[in-house]
Amino acid sequence: MRGHPGRSPPIILHHAFPQLRPAPAGPPGEPFWTARVNNRRVIGDLRQWFDPERAERVGEPPDYRFSLANERTFLAWIRTGLALIAGGLACAQFLPPLPIAHLREGIAVLLLLLGALVALRAVDHWARTERAMRLKQDLPGSRFPAVLAIVVALGALLLVVAVLIQASR
Amino acid sequence: MTPDPGASAERTRLAWRRTGLSAAAVGLLAARPAFTPDATPPRVLLAAAAMTGWVILVRLSYLRVRGLRRGPPQPGRRTVVAYAWVTVGLAIIGGLVVTL
């Protein structure tokens, strides 16, 4: 007879087969609060940049290996940003003046802006991923890598045009 | 020595070191105009600012690497956020080096 205490699967099975374990129900009131936090995405994230301890107050800490993987992803993005900044500085210092006036400085400033944007987006994505892992939600997706790829490709095309103009003179 | 499955703490330590080396390249490039014969006072000041930023980044990664030695390591918080802001600061210094 189902539902009888004596007939329910022994609790030891839950250790062998975790998928048999009933889904943990959150404490009453928490889903509403969590949803409210997620709806205030931009403000919440901006605040998290200045007050990262805030993330400690939601959910529970994930496996530390996941946190460290998130941190390494952040560092890889920071290196991408630093490479863009170094590229901008090298562009201004080592490139000969290009045929179009101030094109060299323009490319350099564009690369520097891109580097700063990559760094800001890296910390934003790191904070959102950290919070999603604490709340056991899906990790945040991002269109930023695609946007960055398109901007870098357009910059390369611009340089190709500049080189061709210089060669034809 | 604490167990480190997947060597994740060690890989994170190495990632911090690599990032510090990338920051060194940025700091040296930003300081380079100060060492030319026609160096102006603003360029010298910007070079000093870039070197200061680099020192802060190295100090932050040193603190974080030391924090990772504990087991189990705690996720980085303030270090990570501060690192990103100093990187943005280096980009601003670079913009001034290029335009001034």
Please give the structural blueprint.
The complex is a heterodimer of chains A (169) and B (100).
Chain A: H1 13-16, H2 30-39, H3 41-50, H4 64-94, H5 103-134, H6 144-168
Helix pairs in contact in A: 3-5, 4-5
Chain B: H1 8-31, H2 41-67, H3 78-99
Helix pairs in contact in B: 1-2, 1-3, 2-3
Describe the structure.
The complex is a heterodimer of chains A (169) and B (100). Chain A is mostly helical. Chain A has a domain at 77-168. In chain A, 66% of the residues lie in helices and 0% in strands. Chain A contains 6 helices and no strands. Chain A has helices at residues 13-16, 30-39, 41-50, 64-94, 103-134, 144-168. The longest helix of chain A has 32 residues, at 103-134. Chain A is elongated and about 65 Å long. Chain A starts with 12 loop residues before the first helix and ends with a helix. The model of chain A is unreliable at 1-15 and 17-44 (pLDDT under 50). By secondary structure, chain B is mainly alpha-helical. Chain B has one domain. Chain B is 73% helix and 0% strand. Chain B has 3 helices and no strands. The longest helix of chain B is centred in the middle third of the chain and has 27 residues, at 41-67. Chain B starts with 7 loop residues before the first helix and ends with a helix.
